[in-house]
Design brief:
- This protein has 25 helices and 18 strands.
- The chain is of the alpha/beta class.
- It has a 7-stranded mixed sheet. A 5-stranded antiparallel sheet has the order 11-12-13-10-14.
- The chain is elongated and about 125 Å long.
Length: about 800
């Protein structure tokens, strides 16, 4: 099933489009259906109806969750609102910085598995704009996951217990993968994450002009192709492998693991069956000998959980399956051994049923009427797993910069490393990898040295691969993104290392086409010197805006600017003509118009400030020149003075100090101001582009309405024009949304920036005048001594 909703204008599925045809569902009714539904497509459909009824669109948490809550709070019963209370408490944790720590970031998560959704939730709580793409249409993994206590506590803090009341209530903590995915999907949707199913991530698309990073998707025309992002999270399992991530594997010819899910009818007889978590031959030798005697099958371990299904998993030697004729030939290659042509699935299904009957009968009561549950392919849910080969990535994260657009890529869960399943280790380490990745994204956005962020992530990854229950902090309720709240042996600062190879490995994780940026970061990283954010921003700014243009390059740049200006003017002229002809209606967005008007006033102020600072520096240069001429003329008239060399040395010192002062002001005031001003030019181009997109969308929309109203219009032409209109509206809406996030942020930082610049100016001038006054005092004393001697 392929999703074809309009990006940015719908929730998580396509249902909102069809509701225009069949009638809208009340938002409160749709929310109750969303809350209680278990089918993935129905959950997304119901939430789409909620957003449609409330005229809300998924987006950043501060813009979405409070509005959703306020509009439904008076219409829902206590049962449904309890989840909100739990989420409100989680949202207010200090580590999320008021849900603004990553408000400038846009994150694409590839994979809506447990770890993908868990990472998406953390990024959403940090204030980022988060989109998830998932290749499957439905969640149908019945495998049951044993949970460590911290995972249970983490899920409770996210409100999962409100959606799955049995969480943490049994003798052992576990939940089926499907139910956990479903619960996390609901939490993510409520917080504002946009989830697309039936969408396959194919590859990255490098930035073009001002568009930033995009994804190549299947289907190719899916609206998520318009989503530009700064962070990419890989969460699709071992199959996800982007260029730049080196994957490796370990080989150990272990036993085979068989999993099977049987239908749970929730009958009184089934309720009496005792769970069997983690039985092993060493600890339960009598049971394993008995099953080997009766079934002629040599098992090493067995686990049974009564959950959404009756879930069984057991380890068995390949030789045992060969002797039972389940495996036809005992090939040395595991791929050939487990190929479909070498497995007798009918014998396998019968043997699994016998194992399930014997084990449940042995410990409690035999499972009645065992029937296989179905998997996502609508087949009986049995699998043989080979863990003799485990894949892992050598890198947990990397940064790629192209044309001034940085992209942070990080891996979580099985995409990062295929952790062992036993006793919940895989799930626990997967959850920890999600929190570690979110901590990395937070640090990266706060503009720490990117190389130090990558180094810290590698250190965490190394720790993660070895962590066990005893290595985690005991205060489970205090766990958050900060690693020191979770890991006992974690230190908040990465230990300095003099190992050249290790530092070189970190440097390889930063791939940029800006050589100056790379040199700057490398110098700061290897020397462990102070990382100046403004200096770093200026390095990037110079690369983006001040590249040397000569010959054809300069000519082409001028032509490009001319074309851009002509296109802008012609688009506006076209709109004016269409308005006079009555062939378009101007879309009015008062919120965006007010922000744009405020921006233009701010732009004028910044230009004026830039101008006066340059004039001030030019005046200082003139003072220096005039003073130098004065001292030269004076020196000619006092050639006969004793120690004239001291006087001349002082004049040289004054000249040097004045030049140093001007250079310092350029570095500390003018360069940051130029960097700050550059942001305005980028935003101005985005505003102009948005205006052109709006005009085009308005004209297409008006024409499309005319076509729809024409009874003689060709249906094919109408459909094609409707698609073109929707695509144009999608692109404009995405640009408008970006501007609504960028403009307030740019305005809010102005006071802090101006205060820092003014402080830098005053401090530099104070130091300069103190040094100058000392030299002048020395010169005046020299003159007094001369007068007394005469």
């Amino acid at each position: 099933m392929v999703k074809n909703q309009r990006f940015g204008l719908a929730a998580s599925s396509v249902a909102g489009q069809t509701m225009h045809l069949v009638g809208s569902e009340a938002a409160d009714t749709a929310f109750m259906r969303f809350y209680d539904e278990e089918n993935t497509s129905e959950i997304l459909s119901a939430f789409d109806a909620v957003c449609e009824g409330l005229d809300l669109h998924p987006g950043r948490l501060p813009d979405f969750f409070p509005n959703l809550q306020s509009r439904l709070s008076d219409k829902l019963s206590f049962r449904y609102k309890e989840l909100w209370k739990v989420l409100e408490k989680r949202i207010k944790k200090n580590c999320y910085g008021g849900n603004k720590s990553c408000k400038e970031l846009k994150v694409l998560v590839v994979g809506a598995g447990v770890c993908g959704l868990r990472t998406a939730i953390e990024c959403q709580l940090l204030g980022a704009r988060v989109v998830v793409v998932e290749s499957k249409d439905e969640f149908q993994d019945n495998n049951v996951l044993p949970l460590w206590k911290f995972v249970v506590e983490d899920l409770k803090q996210l409100g999962v217990q409100r959606l799955y009341s049995r969480l943490g209530m049994g003798t052992s903590d576990h939940i089926s993968t499907r139910l956990l995915q479903t619960a996390l999907l609901k939490v993510a949707s409520i917080l504002g994450v946009q989830v697309y199913t039936g969408v396959q991530f194919m590859s990255l698309k490098d930035p073009e002009d001002e568009l930033g990073w995009h994804a190549r998707l299947e289907p190719e025309d899916h609206e998520a192709r318009h989503f530009s992002f700064d962070v990419l999270v890989g969460a699709t399992g071992s199959s996800f492998n982007l260029q730049g991530f080196n994957r490796s594997k370990t080989e150990d010819f272990e036993n085979l693991l068989i999993t099977a899910s049987l239908r749970n009818e929730a009958s009184p007889e089934e309720a009496l069956i005792t769970e069997m978590p983690g039985l092993s031959r060493e600890m339960h030798s009598a049971f394993f000998k008995a099953i080997e005697t009766e079934l002629k099958l040599k098992l090493e371990k067995l686990t049974y959980y009564r959950d959404d299904t009756h879930f069984f998993q057991f380890e068995v030697t390949p030789q045992s399956l060969v002797s039972k004729k389940i495996l036809k030939d005992n090939f040395e290659s595991r791929d050939r051994l487990l190929s479909k042509t070498n497995v007798n699935f009918e014998l396998l299904k019968r043997e699994i049923i016998e194992v399930c009957r014997f084990s449940t009968r042995y410990f409690s009561r035999q499972i009645p009427h065992p029937t296989y549950a179905l998997n996502s392919d609508r087949e009986e849910d049995i699998s043989i797993h080979d863990f003799s080969t485990k894949h892992f990535s050598k890198e947990a994260g990397k940064v790629t910069v192209r044309k001034g657009f940085p992209l942070l890529t990080c891996l979580v869960g099985d995409t990062l490393c295929q952790f062992p399943w036993q006793e919940g280790t895989g799930t626990a380490r997967g959850f920890l990898s999600c929190l570690d990745a979110a901590w990395m994204i937070r640090a990266w956005n706060l503009q720490a040295n990117p190389l130090q962020v990558l180094e810290e992530r590698r250190s965490l990854y190394s720790l993660l691969c070895k962590v066990n229950v005893e290595d985690l902090c005991s205060a489970l309720e205090k766990y958050d993104l900060d690693p020191k709240t979770r890991y006992k042996n974690w230190k908040s600062t990465v230990q300095d290392t003099s190992e050249y190879d290790e530092k070189e490995n970190i440097l390889e994780l930063y791939d940029t086409d800006n050589k100056e940026e790379y040199r700057y970061l490398k110098e700061k990283f290897t020397s462990r010197s102070y990382f100046d954010k403004l200096s770093y921003a200026n390095v990037v700014y110079r690369y983006q805006s001040n590249e040397e243009e000569t010959g054809e390059t300069k000519k082409n740049a001028s032509i490009k600017r001319l074309r851009s200006n002509l296109r802008k003017k012609s688009t506006r002229l076209r709109e004016n003509i269409m308005i006079k002809l009555g062939r378009t209606k101007v879309t009015k967005d008062e919120e965006l118009n007010n922000m744009t008007s405020q921006f233009r006033g701010q732009l004028s102020q910044v230009r004026r400030l830039n101008e006066v600072v340059e004039n001030y520096l030019a005046a200082l240069d003139e003072v220096n020149k005039a003073e130098s001429e004065l001292f030269k003329a004076w020196a000619v008239n006092i050639q006969d003075w004793h120690n004239i060399e001291n006087f001349l040395q002082n004049t040289e010192d004054i000249d040097s100090k004045r030049k140093q002062n001007v250079e310092a002001l350029k570095t500390q005031v003018l360069v940051p101001l130029d960097t700050y001003s550059h942001q305005f030019q980028e935003v101005k181009r985005k505003i102009d582009k948005g205006e052109q997109l709006r005009i085009e969308a308005d004209i297409l929309k008006y024409r499309n309405n005319q076509l729809k109203a024409d009874p003689n219009a060709n249906s094919g032409i109408v459909a094609a024009h409707t698609k073109r209109t929707n695509d144009a509206q999608d692109v404009y809406s995405t640009t408008a949304e970006d501007l609504k996030n960028i403009l307030p942020s740019l305005y809010s930082v102005r006071r802090e920036f101006f205060a820092q610049s003014l402080y830098g100016l005053f401090l530099q001038q104070n130091n300069f005048h103190n040094e100058l006054s000392y030299i002048y005092r020395e010169m005046s004393e020299y003159v007094l001594i001369k007068l007394k001697s005469d």
